[in-house]
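Sample intake sheet
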Amino acid sequence: MSKIRIVDLEVRYHVGVPDEERAQAQRLLISVEIGHDFSKACESDRIEQTIDYNQVVTELLRFGEGRSWRLIETLAVDAAEMILKTFGPHSVTVEVKKFVIPQASYVSVVATRSLPM
């Protein structure tokens, strides 16, 4: 299985337990690892045979519009499930980084989802 990685995509989503924190969209970094067999794409050199990572980025940039989450755990799972459903990879791992603890570089949550065998 091969992988496509998108690392530290900057998004602005409404997320946080207190209502005040969710009131304003905040900066998050999202990393995605997509497990997919793109051997056919390598043979044909055609984007239709793989997962177009530009389309994944476009969907993630739009994903927060009109939505909010209390927990980044829920956000990570929702994003992973959206990618799985929309793009049909074998598996997807999503990491969400949040910058709310001054003493830490960031807090992150990682969620992995895959198609049933």
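Comment: The chain has four helices and five strands. The chain has one domain: 2-114.
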